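Hi F.,

I've been meaning to write this up properly since the lab meeting, where we talked about keeping a consistent format for the predictions we share between groups. The idea is simple: the sequence comes first, exactly as it goes in, then the structure tokens exactly as they come out, then a line or two of notes. No screenshots and no reformatting. I'm using this chain as the first example so we have something concrete to point to.
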Amino acid sequence: MFNLIRDFPGQILKALVIGEDAAISTTFSGPIKNVAIVGLGGSGIGGDLLAELLRDSIGVPITVTKGYFLPAFVDSSTLLILSSYSGNTEEVLSCANEAISKGLKPICVTSGGKLDRFALEHKLDVIHIPHGMPPRACLGFSSIQLFFILHRFGLISNSFKEALKRVAAFLAKEQEKMIEDSEFLAGKLVEKVVIIYTEDKY
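Output, unedited:
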């Protein structure tokens, strides 16, 4: 796990390549009115981050759902994204079936599993990310694809690409100091109760 976390800057750069190469053919007959992302755990965190990062700059609301059913507002004007690293998340698969029953065409982000086979069966767009790792260690792979999907439909500009490259460079440069600081803080927190408070954008 330590090595996977340490490689996060490299994961960002690899995720950018995956996003650039991804083919998305889904179309909408009218304007997109909202975005709904279905995902749990490590696959859902990317949606949460996206919603917060874009809250003050995107013109449509982004909702992240972690249950077995789609929000009632989801319809043909919704950009629906199903994110499951393993491809076997029950809740995501349940929402996938509901989407098809409503005649919707969700876009899938996964490393394989049942969701991948479901996408193939129903001719859905799917972005494949590398498999074989703990989902929580693949945040870069899963979350960055969400930016590419939103850009594909004109909801955000492509400025995120250069921003993410700068983030990767910064993290690589500062990584050793971050590790030292983390070890120092971890030592201070042994047998302590931690209370964290901040404004909601953080």
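Notes:
Strands lie at 34-38, 62-65, 78-84, 107-110, 126-128.
The radius of gyration is 18 Å.

If this format works for you, I'll send the rest the same way.

G.
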